[in-house]
From TrEMBL:
Location of region: Disordered: 1-25
GO molecular function, one term: catalytic activity
Pfam families the UniProt entry points to: PhzC-PhzF (PF02567)
Domain of life from the UniProt record: Bacteria
Protein's recorded name: PhzF family phenazine biosynthesis protein
InterPro entries: Phenazine_PhzF-like
């Protein structure tokens, strides 16, 4: 059964996070999840979730807080019962992103989320949380194929200016992929540990289910679904929660 976080603010952004304009204390009320953990429970991409989005009203204040926290994305929950969420990188607002939706679906335990891009269906299957979304909702990514997983692992971080998702087959017959993500935004996130939107785009391009190992050892599962939807799934944890 999928473990859930308690209905109170959990792990904070940690000590030393500066205050954002209009926010009295950015440490409080920010849950920090790890989304797309590996099979051994390690790794996963950190995600900041502000469950009470009303405490940070307005795009400017939210963008400032996301920049101060410094995660690849931060989610603001505007309606925890209906699943309305608002997603920010350290430098921009996104209509949709994969790991924020998977993390928010796990934390809020809802059957769907409402994003500016559209309604994202969610489900829980054992230790995995899944979302269903459309490739056209995903931010643009350059999907760059390499001949081997070793080449992907040996890559240096490319210059800023282009969001690059580097990938190679580990086992094509089994659908196993090795990948790394380089946002190229020059915002302090040189490499993304696990990127759900890029995995969605790669699945759309290849037209098949994938088992992706990204970053240091995070795992993303994908599967094409009916009506052009693509499912993206993974394990989520709230570090420090006693049940984990």
């Amino acid at each position: 059964m999928t473990e859930r976080a308690p209905d109170v603010p959990g792990t904070s952004g940690g000590p030393g996070v500066p205050e954002a304009p209009g926010v009295p204390d950015v440490h409080q009320g920010v849950d920090v999840l790890r989304v797309f953990r590996g099979p051994d429970g390690r790794y996963g991409n950190e995600l900041g979730v502000v469950r009470d989005g009303g405490r940070v009203p307005g795009r400017a204040a939210r963008q400032a807080l996301a920049g101060k926290l410094g995660f690849s994305e931060t989610v603001f929950v505007d309606d925890p019962e209906r699943g309305h969420i608002d997603i920010y990188t350290p430098t921009t607002r996104l209509p949709f992103a994969g790991h924020p939706c998977v993390g928010a679906a796990w934390l809020l335990d809802l059957p769907e989320l409402v994003t500016p891009a559209g309604v994202v269906a969610a489900r829980h299957d054992g230790e995995f949380t899944w979302i269903a979304a459309r490739a056209r909702w995903a931010p643009a990514r350059t999907l760059r194929a390499y001949a081997s997983a070793a080449e992907v692992e040996a890559l240096a971080v490319p210059p800023a200016g282009e969001w690059v998702y580097a990938w190679a087959w580990e086992d094509e017959a089994a659908g196993r992929v090795r990948a790394r993500g380089f946002p190229g935004r020059n915002d302090g996130v040189a490499e993304d540990e696990a990127t759900g939107a890029a995995a969605l785009l790669l699945t759309h391009q290849l037209g098949r289910a994938l088992n992706i190992t990204q970053g240091r050892g995070s795992q993303i599962l994908t599967a094409p679904g009916p009506g052009g939807l693509i499912e993206v799934g993974g394990r989520v944890a709230l570090p420090g929660h006693p049940a984990l």
